[in-house]
Amino acid sequence: MKPKTVGRVLGIGLRVAGRVAGERMAGQGGRQAAPNQRVVGAADVSAAASRARQAAGRASRGLGRGVGGFLRPFGRVGRIVWLEVAGVFFLLPVLVFGAWMWRERASWAHGADHRTFVASAVIVAVFLYLGVTSFWRAWRK
Question: Is the pTM of this model over 0.90?
Answer without folding.
Answer: no
